[in-house]
Write a structure and sequence with these properties.
29% of the residues lie in helices and 26% in strands. With 148 residues, the chain is an alpha/beta fold. Strands 3-2-4-5-1-6-7 form a seven-stranded mixed beta sheet, sandwiched between helices.
């Protein structure tokens, strides 16, 4: 079973929060897959990761750029980990049938969107029912705060 963290975005948009989390994975020598919900989001995140100031270097690739096996971060719409990632980031309500194949899963959702919050609750219940270890994180004044 995987450790799944639900990350409730309440203070910053995904484009500001995701780079810092990805930077921590890379700093620890890990590889990540970011699964998005649609091609427009993939293109948008690709651009925002290249322009990120914190951290200022997030090497990554997409199906359009290719060479997945060389990419420490892979952005995709598919349920895949062609770069050998052990960390999965799910955004925009994206799901995976392969949660158990990752060491850690980050499920990021927009706390300003009631539909996104309700969908995250559904994913939480399904993951709990599957026996995964769950944590809930919410953005606070000083960063991520682990809640009960």
């Amino acid at each position: 079973m995987s450790e799944i963290g639900f990350y409730h975005l309440t203070r910053t948009p995904l484009e500001a929060a995701l780079p810092k989390l990805l930077g921590r994975v890379l700093a620890g020598g890990g590889r990540a897959v970011v699964r998005v919900g649609d091609p427009l989001r993939l293109a948008s995140l690709d651009t925002s990761l290249w322009l990120s100031a914190d951290p200022d270097w997030l090497p990554h690739g997409t199906p359009q750029t290719g060479h997945a096996e060389l990419q420490p971060i892979w952005l995709t719409e598919a349920d895949e980990a062609p770069n050998g990632a052990r960390f999965l980031f799910l955004v925009d309500g994206a799901a995976s049938a392969r949660l158990g194949e990752y060491d850690r899963v980050f499920d990021l959702f927009d706390g300003q969107d009631e539909a996104a919050v309700a969908a995250a609750r559904g994913r939480w219940a399904a993951a709990r029912g599957a026996g995964h270890a769950l944590t809930y994180w919410q953005q606070g004044a000083r960063g991520w705060e682990k809640k009960a």
